[in-house]
Amino acid sequence: MSFHELLTRPVRAPDRVIRFGPHPDQVIDVHLPPRETAPAVVLLHGGFWLSQYDRSHTRPMATALADLGHRVYVPEYRRLGQEGGGYPGTFDDVATAIDLVAAERRGRGGVTVVGHSAGGHLALWSALRHRLPASCPWRGEPAVEAVVALAALSDLGAAFTSGLGGGAAARLVHGRAELTGLLDPVRLLPLAPTTRVALVHGTRDRLVPVEMSRRFAARAAVALTEIEDAGHFALIDPLSAAWPAVIRALTPSGGGRKRSPACTLLAARTPFSRA
Question: Which residues form the signal peptide (predicted)?
């Protein structure tokens, strides 16, 4: 399926909008469930951090997750091509949004961060902020209970050197490769032992190669579900055959596990038929 096909899926307008800064894109859409029966989700959209891709393409997924009982928070953030986009503004916005949601949810259960593509990179980075230097303003103890990374750009250094997304990773850091030490999930490992992480990736992904998730899963000793014949956008389409695997990854027993020193790689291959 294509990106444009995804935009035809049924959506609802958000029930609430939280503003966290003066820029028009410093906002969080909130989608409320009929009854809250599942963990709250922060949903970070992808698009190679580029301004032409905004949160609107994740609204079908946000609507579907809310229907399943999740309260869904969808942050927007400044992106490449906008004033303040890229380093450091993109990371300022994501850190601020997740901290705001975590504060709102304190005492009401943990927060699961779901990210797709570049949003997967930001989701994993959010769970690794405790590994940043003490002098870094983004450093913080893990406020994220679980991460589900869908077709994630989990290796920023590899994306930088290979030119994925037309060189978007290099633009993200203004060509300064040394900044990837602060921003690259694979370089910030290990994860906190209490953080559950699950990766999901389609084997036919032409935008972010599945090998990237395989390498991250091996390095981090976390679960990876490979969906055979699935492309990049099937993972965020509630009408795709890949969708049940994504929902399983969201549940603690279904697609991931908390890490421990003895944790071994869990790999699953889920058949997928093209629609």
Answer: none
CA distance 155 to 29: 28
pLDDT value of position 254: 53
Q: Give the position of tokens 């905004």.
A: 54
- Distance, CA of 99 to CA of 140 (rounded, Å): 9
DSSP assignment of 113-174: EEEETHHHHHHHHHTTGGGS-TT-TT------SEEEEES----HHHHHHHTHHHHHHHHHTT
Where are the domains positioned within the chain?
3-270
CATH number at 3-270: 3.40.50.1820
Tell me whether strands 111-116 and 40-44 are parallel, antiparallel or unpaired: parallel
pTM confidence score: 0.91
162 CB contacts (<8 Å, ≥6 apart)?
none
Q: What share of the chain is helix, strand, coil (3-state, %, to 5)?
A: 35, 20, 45
What amino acid is encoded at 105 in this protein? R
DSSP helix/strand/coil, 110: coil
- Residue 7's pLDDT is 76
